[in-house]
């Protein structure tokens, strides 16, 4: 993907890729074993189909995830994180730790995620 960034600031460029309200949620779901479109729709945040389609496409386009066909007819795809996407896991884990420390009503992620 030949992406244009707002600046060369590393925070800004990272936010240009993952700074919307859904990408890290989809990434979380992939880390927790979800790979199919219908599985992502089952998350408690209730992402809409059009937004999910857009986010998965952007994640594939930016190299965070890859897609492959698991059913040829009708065409169905599954998604998995690439090494680039998996490298975001420590960032998301730290966000969880921060939220658990400072936002008392947040749920504690499973140990397998942490």
Structural class: mainly alpha
Q: What's the N-to-C terminus distance? A: 30 Å
Order of helices and strands: HHHHEEHH
Mean pLDDT: 94
The number of E-state strands comes to 2
* Largest beta-sheet details: 2 strands, antiparallel
Q: Which strands sit side by side, in order, in the main sheet? A: 1-2
* Portion in helices: 40-55%
Radius of gyration: 15 Å
Shape: globular
Q: Work out the helix count.
A: 6
Low-confidence stretches: none
Content of β-strand:
5-15%
What does this structure look like?
By secondary structure, the protein is mainly alpha-helical. The chain contains six helices and two strands, in the order ααααββαα. A two-stranded antiparallel ribbon has the order 1-2. It is globular and about 45 Å long.
């Amino acid at each position: 993907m030949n992406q244009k960034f707002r600046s060369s600031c590393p925070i800004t460029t990272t936010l240009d890729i993952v700074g919307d309200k859904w990408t890290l949620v989809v990434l979380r779901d992939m880390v927790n074993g979800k790979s199919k479109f219908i599985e992502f729709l089952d998350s408690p945040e209730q992402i809409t189909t059009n937004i999910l389609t857009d986010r998965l496409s952007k994640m594939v386009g930016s190299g965070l995830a890859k897609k492959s066909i698991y059913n040829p007819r009708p065409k169905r795809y599954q998604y998995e994180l690439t090494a680039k996407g998996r490298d975001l896991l420590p960032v998301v884990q730290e966000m969880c730790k921060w939220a658990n420390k400072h936002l008392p009503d947040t749920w504690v992620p499973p140990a397998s995620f942490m």
